[in-house]
Fold this protein.
Amino acid sequence: MQIAIYAIRTSEKWECRLSLDLRVDFQWWYGKKRWLDESANNPIFVLLSSQMPLGWAVEIREKFRSINEMNEWSVREWQNYVFLGLRGSLLQEPEVSRPQWGALFKEIQLLNGARIRSLMEMGSTVEHGAVLMQQAELLIQCMEGRALLAGEVEALLAEVAGEDTGDWRSAAQLGVLLGRLRLEAGLAQPAPRHSPGWLRRRAVAPRCRRCGSEARSRTACAACCSAACAYCEACLAMGRSRACALLLHGAAGSAVRGTAGGSPTAALGRWGLSAAQSAAAGAALQFLAEPPAGGSAGLARFLIWAVTGAGKTEMVFPLILNKPGFIRVLDDE
């Protein structure tokens, strides 16, 4: 898919943001801001693109760093900045297809207060604020602890809401601005490593954010118009994870200690553990349900230590099922 990307100057610094619906962003930043100076000539909002391949937009956002000189930048300087940020991705494109992306850099607009106000008055409005907030809250609740591709988000909302979800992207964008959701691409370029030059000769392939595999396959993509859009073959059976595929992250729910429901005996019944395994797993469940009195919950530890082949992995299953806290499995094999 393609997405909008912009830079905005807040009271503290310049920030780079992605948007599924720019109307939501304008209302978020300026809808109730009476201080918006319509006579100001300096740009405070730079539309870098209204339709950029999502993977490219994420790449620019990850590299973005605020510098004071941006306050005085012209369109040409912003164009150079975007071009340098996308140079690696552009080189992946077949040479015959590169000219079409020239229009991408001509789209950059510097918007001051007066221009922003006129765009807000001319543009169509999004859903009523209260309705949009309700939709955003429902989406945030559904997405808690999940990372789903766009099609999976639609299926989840249809199951929960039991009706046509319509265009949920406006609600998702509000959730992003609230800091409760996060927009990512299905594939991501790994962070650069400090290594000798001879180790950096091989091009680093992007990794799938869903399964973690390297994605070396590329194909033409109608969704983002790239002729070399990378995709992951390892988890293809779950739906194609592309460099331009929207991956929506929900905030993880808080881990509350002492809430392992039911008795340890009931939790162990389905796993077919031996007597010794059941005793160890039952003690761990009891520990998670009732942490030691007077001890710090953040420092409390319970260790299951056994020889290779004793069935430590199976002992962890009932602990994961009850989800009472964070569990770390260490294997020294």
